[in-house]
Design goal:
It contains six helices and 13 strands. It has 286 residues and is α/β, with parallel strands linked by helices. The protein folds into two domains: 95 residues, Ribosomal Protein L25, Chain P; 148 residues, SPOUT methyltransferase, trefoil knot domain (Alpha/beta knot), CATH 3.40.1280. The C terminus is likely disordered.
């Protein structure tokens, strides 16, 4: 499979496309939705209402349909009509081949401690936009917010709706997961070095981290610190719990995508030998 994914055409023939080209094609659509079957892309009632009534899409506007597992295809929105010509509802009409994008080389997880208000929804939204594969609510010793019973069910349902909406908005074709609440002790298993805890004064990233646990605003308890998990520093300042979760997501995603590399300092040109770069600095480009 090509790095950017395959385009499945007639007769089973495929042609590769670059990741940038595929994302650009999705970004140019008026909206994206998730469907159960790409061969027969049927809108859910909620999505139909959103496209027709909230976004007020016109007949023929482009919409991306994705299956949440790496597959997607271009479609056209076909508006329903009632006598008098008023648009009511609508359906999707396939307008291109099915594309299949490969999964990332490894999964990334951020376990975050929920705080009061709508901050957990904001965290899930931003982590979804960043490409994190799984978000897990963390129950820490010093947690203030604790989800249990029906409250936990309602909170998780809400976070999963937020993740789905954010995936559509950011044109992700793989739906991220929102896991069940867990504890730091339950996260300790797995390959050494893959699970790390965010902490003030923690170690710089090594590139092996796959799961970052972010504690509450009160910090980790002595018992949690005594578990012996590697630490990860997120900068020289004290961050709010929700900010730290997003900062961890940025770091994990950038390392996986090779936007940054662990353990390498940026190259700096000494001031005495620096030269102006055409097109930068002065407005005239000189």
């Amino acid at each position: 499979m090509a790095a950017g994914g395959d385009v499945v055409g007639s007769g089973g023939a495929t042609r590769s496309a670059t990741p940038v080209a595929m994302l650009a094609a999705r970004a140019s659509a008026a909206a994206q939705v998730f469907v159960d079957d790409l061969d027969h892309p049927i809108l859910s009632p909620d999505d139909e209402h959103h496209l027709a009534r909230s976004l007020r899409l016109q007949d023929g506007e482009p919409v991306v349909a994705a299956d949440g597992q790496g597959g997607w295809r271009a479609c056209r929105f076909r508006a329903g009509r009632v006598p008098g010509g008023r648009a009511v509802g609508g359906h999707l009409e396939a307008d291109g081949p099915v594309h299949r994008e490969p999964p990332p080389p490894f999964r990334l997880t951020v376990a975050f401690t929920p705080v009061k208000g709508d901050r957990p929804e904001w965290v899930v939204q931003k982590l979804t936009e960043l490409g994190i594969d799984e978000m897990v609510p963390l129950v820490a010793d010093r947690s203030v917010v604790r989800w249990e019973g029906e409250r936990a069910r309602a909170a998780l349902d809400r976070l999963r709706r937020v993740a789905r909406e954010a995936a559509c908005q950011s044109r992700r074709v793989r739906l991220p997961e929102v896991g069940e609440p867990t504890t730091l002790a339950a996260l300790r298993g797995g390959i050494a070095g893959e699970t790390v805890v965010a902490d003030l004064g923690g170690d710089p990233p090594t590139g092996t981290a796959r799961l970052v646990a972010v504690g509450p605003e009160g910090g980790w308890s002595p018992e949690e610190r005594g578990m012996g998990l590697p630490t990860l520093g997120l900068g020289p300042h004290v961050l709010r719990a929700e900010t730290a979760a997003v900062a961890a997501g940025v770091l994990l995603s950038a390392l996986r995508d090779a936007t940054v590399q662990a353990g390498r300092a940026p190259s700096v040109v000494p001031p005495s030998t620096s030269r102006p770069v055409p097109g930068q600095g002065r407005p005239d480009g000189m």
